[in-house]
Amino acid sequence: MKSITGAYEGVFHINGQTRRMVVFPQDTLLSLLRGHAVSLSGAKPGCENGDCGACTVVLDGLPVKSCMKLAVESEDTAITTVEGLYDTEVPKQFLDKWAFQCGYCTSGFILVAYAMLLNTSRVNDAIITEWLRSNVCRCTGYQEIHEAVWAAANARGNGT
Amino acid sequence: MKVIGCSIPRKDARDKVTGRAKYNHDITVGGTLYAVPRLAEYAHAAIKNIRTVAALKVEGVRAVLTGQDTPFLVGEVLEDRPPLAHGRVLYWGEPVALVVADSEEKARLAASLIDIDYEPLPVVNSIDEALKPNAPLIHPDVDRYTILNHPVYPKSHTNIADHVHVRKGPTDPLWPQCDVVIESRSVLPQIDHMAMETRSATVEILPGGRVLVHSTTQAPFAVQKMLAHYFQLDQGQVVVMAPLVGGAFGGKAAVQLEILAYLASRAVGGQMVSVVNSREQDFAMSPVGTGLDAHFRLGARDDGKILAAEITYRLDIGAYTDSAPRIARAIAAQCTGPYAVDNVKCDVLCVYTNHTYTTAFRGFGHMPMTFAIERAIEKLADALKMDSLALRLMNAIRPGQSSPTKARLTASNVGDLPKALNAMAKLIEWNGGKVMKVGPHLIRVQGIASFWKTSSSPPDAVSGAVITMNKDGTVNLSIGAVECGPGTKTTAAQILAEKLQMPVDRVFVHLDVNTEVDPEHWKTVASLSTYMVGKAVEEACKDLIRQLKNLAAIALKCSPSDLAVAGEKVFLRDDPQVMVRFSDIAHGYRFPEGDTIGGQRIARGSFVIRHLNLLDEETGEGRPGPGWTVGVQGVLLEVNTETFDYRVVKAASVIDAGKVLNPQGAKSVVMGGMCQGLSYATRESVVYGSDGTFLNRQMRSYRTVRMGEQPEQYLVEFVETPQIDAPFGARPLGEHGVLAMPAAVANALSRALGIEANQPPFVPESLWALAGGEKA
Ligand code: FES
Ligand code: FES
C-alpha cells in the first residue's frame, strides 16, 4: 500500500504511453484523466460515487470506475481509456448497431464490454447482463447495446 | 439520390463511440473559478441568520453570495423564484448561498462551513395538503408577482399558481343520458430526468461587455434572453454556446445554473466561473418532473360512445412555477386523450408544494396525463364489458372532429389513430387482455394504451437555417437546435441533402450551437425540431437553389428556369451535359478570362408556426400546435401471482410518424423512450420524507432500468399519414416513445391481479398491498 501526503510524482501508463505526472492524494483517476495534463475526456463523471459507470476505464484488464479510484493507486498499472480503443471492434459495433444516442454513457459501456471480452472466452445473455449492469444509460433501450456487444463477441469468434 | 427514408448514420456517431465528442464540461480552461451552492436542509423554513465568516476564511475563496446579494425574482412565466433563497427556503435542496473559489474542492469545503440558522415552518408535502383550507401559504404574494409571459392566473391566498379551464359543450345535461358512468383517480409522483450528464454552466463577463456562456442547455436562446432580461443587457451581448448535450429530456430547458454562474462571475470581476452540478445537486436542487393527481368522470352510452367527461388535473409543481403554466395548458389542450368527446369540462391546477420545483419533462405533462386518461378508459371498458381496444377504436379521434379546445382536426394534422390501433392489435396479437396461465403461479397478460400530443409551443416561436457553401461545393448548415441525443442535426442534414439532391456526407452541420452565429431556434423541446428546423432548412434550400440557378444561368447563357440542380451540379433540364459544378459557382463564377461574378453562396431560411393562439381564459378555446402525433403502445407482462414480481416480455409501439425520415434513428429514439417509460412504470419516483427531505438523491436509491431489465422484445412499427405542411410529411417523434408505456403497464397489471393499479411506480410490494396484502 502506497501512502502519500502531498504532491507526488508518479509514472502512469495510459493507452500504451508512459507519462510522468504530479498527482495529489485527493485526485481521483477520473480527474487525472480528464485534467489538463492528460486531457482524455472520454471518461465521464455521471455520479462520482460508483453508481453509473460513465467513468469506467480498464486497469490491467479489469473495468474500474475511475471516480472511485485514487490516481496514485493506478500508478504502474496499464490504463486503457475509450480513446485507446480507437478503430477496434467494440466501438465499431456500437456505431453499427446505433447503441448510443446522447453518447454520454457510451465510453463506459464500451470499456465494460471490452473488458468482458478480454476476460470471458464465451459470452451469453446472462454474462452480458452481469457485466453491463454496472452502467446506466438513460437514452437507449439497452437492446441496442446488448446487440452491439453480441456482435463484438461474434466478431472475435465467441468461444470458437 | 435518396436520403430521406434511409438509415443515414448519425453525424455525431464516430466522435461519440471513440470518446472524442465534447460535452460542456469536457473542455476546461486553466484558471477557471468554481462556484458551489450551499443547499437548504429544510423543505420550508425561515432563514434567520447566515454567517459566512468561516467560509470566507478558507484559502482560495473569492466570494460568498447569499439571497441578499440577489434581490430579484426570476421565472419563465411567473417571476416567483429568487436565484438564491430570500428570507425563506421553499424546498429541500434550494440554493441558499454560493461560494466562489479557486477550485471546486475549496468551494465545496467553504460552502459546508457556512453557518445558517433556520426556523422550521410547516411543510406542505403533497397536493392535498397544499389545497387544505388553512394550508400554510408557500407564496403569500403570489398575486403580486410579475408575469413575464402571459397567460398565468395565480389565485391569491392559496397555493394555486395557475388554473386553466376547458369548457367544450355543457356536461351536466349529458349525465342522465349516459348508460354507464365511471370515476377514476390516478396519482403519479414527481420523477427526475436523470440525464447522464449533470447540468453545468460557465460564465465569463468580458470588460468589453460581452457575456460568454457555456452551458448544458437545450434552450441556448432562452438562456440568452433570460440573462439579457435580468441583467439589463442587450441580447447581442450575451453569447451562449451549447455543445453536444448528454441527455436532457426537458430538464435542461430550464434556466437555473446560468443565472448562478453569471452572479458568481459578476462577484469576482467577470472572471470565468463554472457551476457544475453534483449528481445529488442535479436531483434535489435543479428542477424535476411534475407529479399529478387526476380525477376523471366519464359517461358513455352502452355501445361505448363517450358522451361526457369531467376531469381535474392537479399538478405538483413544487416550490416555483418555471414552465408549469405552459405544461398545464398543454395538458388542458389534450385533456381527453385522443378520443372524440363533445362535452368536456376540465380544470388543470398548478399547485405549489414544498417539493423541488418542476419543469418540462419528456412529453410536457403528457405521460402522467396519458396515464390518468388510459386508466379511466380501461375502467370504462370494464364497466361496459367491452374489449378495451374496441372501445378505443370506437372513440378514436378522427378528421372532421375537434380537439377539446375546439381546434379543427384534419387527416393531415391529426393522423390516423384507428389505423395505429388496428396495427397494434396485430403486432402484439391482442387477445382482449385475457389472462393467460403459463405456470403454477405465472400468468401472462397484455395491456395497451393510446396517446396524442401536439407541441403547445408559444405562437411566436421561431426557427432558422443558414447554409454557406465551401469552394469545393460542399455545404455547411447552421441551425439553432441543440443535439441532445435524438439525432436532430443529422435529420436536418438529411433534409438539406434530399432537397439539393446531393450526398449527405458532403453536408457539414455545425454540431454545437452558438447564439452569436447560429440562427435562433426557440428551444430544442417538444419534439419540434424536425418540423421547425426542417421547414427553415427547406426555405434555405429554396434560397440556395435560386441563387445557384441565377449564377449558373449567366455561366451557361440561359434562363434560370431552364436549369435543374442535382449531384452537386446545375444543368440544363433538357441537356444535362451542359452544366456547371457546385465547385464552379460556390464562391462566384470565374469566366475563362479570369473575371469573376457572384461571390459566396450564402442562403437562409426562417420559419414561424402559423395560426397558433393562446388558449382562452374561460373556455380554453385555441389552437395549441400545428399537428398531433398519435400512437398506441402495448406490453405483454409475465406476472408471478405469488411474489407479485413481474417482467416485461414484450413492449410494443405503433406511432403515426407521418413519414419516417430515418428508420433506424426513429426506431432507436422510440425504443429509448419506451425503456424510459417502463422505468417510470416499474421503479422511478422522487421520494420525500415526512419533513419534505428529498430522500433518494443518488442513482443507487433513484433506480432506473439497467441492462437485463429491458423488455425481452421491443416491437416498433410506424404508420405513415403525412402531415402535409411538414417536411416530407414527418410528424414529431422525439418524446413519444415514453408517453403511454406506464399506462400500458398499469392496464396489464390491473387485469392480471384484478386491482386498480393507479399509482406508479409498481413494485411487487405495492401490488401485493393493492391485491389485499396479508389477506390475499
Ligand atoms: S461517475 Fe464513476 S460511477 Fe458514476
Ligand atoms: S446514450 Fe445517452 S445515456 Fe446512454
UniProtKB/TrEMBL annotation, chain A:
Residues 8-85 form the 2Fe-2S ferredoxin-type domain. GO terms for molecular function: 2 iron, 2 sulfur cluster binding; metal ion binding; oxidoreductase activity. Pfam families: Fer2, Fer2_2. PROSITE patterns: 2FE2S_FER_1, 2FE2S_FER_2. The keyword Transmembrane helix does not apply. Keywords: 2Fe-2S, Iron, Iron-sulfur, Metal-binding, Oxidoreductase. It comes from the Bacteria. This is (2Fe-2S)-binding protein.
TrEMBL record, chain B:
The keyword Oxidoreductase applies. SMART domains: Ald_Xan_dh_C (SM01008). Gene3D superfamilies: Aldehyde oxidase/xanthine dehydrogenase, a/b hammerhead (3.90.1170.50), Aldehyde oxidase/xanthine dehydrogenase, molybdopterin binding domain (3.30.365.10). Residues 18-122 form the Aldehyde oxidase/xanthine dehydrogenase a/b hammerhead domain. GO terms for molecular function: iron ion binding; oxidoreductase activity. Keywords: Molybdenum, Oxidoreductase. InterPro entries: Ald_Oxase/Xan_DH_a/b, Ald_Oxase/Xan_DH_a/b_sf, Ald_Oxase/xanthine_DH-like, AldOxase/xan_DH_MoCoBD1, AldOxase/xan_DH_MoCoBD2, AldOxase/xan_DH_Mopterin-bd_sf. Pfam families: Ald_Xan_dh_C, MoCoBD_1, MoCoBD_2. The keyword Protein transport does not apply. PANTHER family: ALDEHYDE OXIDASE 1-RELATED (PTHR11908:SF132), XANTHINE DEHYDROGENASE (PTHR11908). This is Aldehyde oxidase. It comes from Sulfobacillus benefaciens.
